[in-house]
Amino acid sequence: MIAEYIEALLTPAPKWAKHMELLNEAIAISARAKRCCEAWAPHQQHTKEAIIDAMEACDQHRIVLVVGSGSCLDIPLAELANKFKQVILIDVVHPLKSKRHGWNHVVQITQDITGQLETLYNHPETLPEMYAPNIYHDVPEIDLVLSVNLASQLPIMPLKYLADKMSHDEKELNRFAKNLIRAHFTWLSGFTCTTALICDQAWERLDATGKLIELDDPLYGLISQKTTREWYWDVAPTHETGTDFSHRNHVGYWANFLFVASDDLSANPNCIYAQS
After folding, report:
1. In angstroms, what CA-CA distances link 178 with 19, 171, 175, 210, 248?
2. In degrees, to the nearest 5, what angle opens at C-alpha 242 toward C-alphas 238 and 248?
3. Which of 12, 61, 80, 230 is the most buried (most CB within 10 A)?
């Protein structure tokens, strides 16, 4: 705990990210990855293999955009750095360990890819009207965009922050969470280059015998496209939960992901109204 506290003091992050606990969460994930290194290893390897698969599908290798880079534990950074002229790592928080690489053309950008969180922090009493951002859509040199183990996580910390404010009912919060993910999917689908979506498609709770006893959909039913590949991630074994229960994520990889617009999109293709 002391090491995590010191890391939190030393890790740069926007003020709003600190107050919304995004900094602490990033550090906690790194600490959990260390504690659960054996259980997490297959998932990290599958993720790297999916990214390499997407990389090899590119006709050119100028710029690769990695969204949700975090500590880069599931990113084949050496392969990307050796292949692309520029590697751009985007996340709200870049843990200190992720900065230890020797490539000048690998850059880290601290950015909220949703474009909504700072506004939400400043005005939690009003849920923002959701717009799919057009960030980086005007950079023609981008040949690959990777959304890595991020989409299902996008609403988690904002929902915790909003719950503390007690300004919104459960229906409003669920609608906000769904629209936040939808906006990310719409943004990713707006690129004309090669893209890859890697994210949880189900959260599972297992008993001591490995029997499934609880199943949650972290994507709010938004995905309709079949996966290119999928696997399981033992995210919290019993030694991590301290109980007889464990948690497992069902992860999917979608090559050239394309979000199919549903009927709750308005005539404005970029504007996503808060409808359930």
Report:
1. 23, 11, 5, 30, 21
2. 35
3. 80
Report domain extents, the chain. Answer: 2-272
Choose among 127, 124, 126: nearest CA to 165: 124
In the predicted model, is pLDDT for residue 202 greater than 90?
yes
| Residues 135-163 pLDDT 10s | 999 999 999 999 999 999 999 999 999 98
Pairing of strands 130-131, 271-272: antiparallel
DSSP state of 247: E
* Bridge-based pairing state of the strands 246-255 and 194-206: antiparallel
170 near 177, Cβ under 8 Å? no
CA–CA distance from 156 to each of 78, 193, 226, 233 (Å)?
30, 29, 25, 18
Q: Is 97 in contact with 26 (CB distance < 8 Å)? A: no
- Which positions ≥6 away from 256 have C-beta within 8 Å? 57, 194, 195, 196
What is the Cα–Cα distance from 157 to 122, expressed in whole angstroms? 15
Strands (E) located in 10-62: none
Cα–Cα distance measured from residue 203 to residue 235, given in angstroms and rounded to the nearest whole number: 10
Helix (H) or strand (E) holding 109: strand 106-110
Residue 204 has pLDDT above 80, yes or no: yes
First CA to last CA across the chain, in angstroms?
A: 40
Class of the CATH domain delimited by 2-272: alpha beta
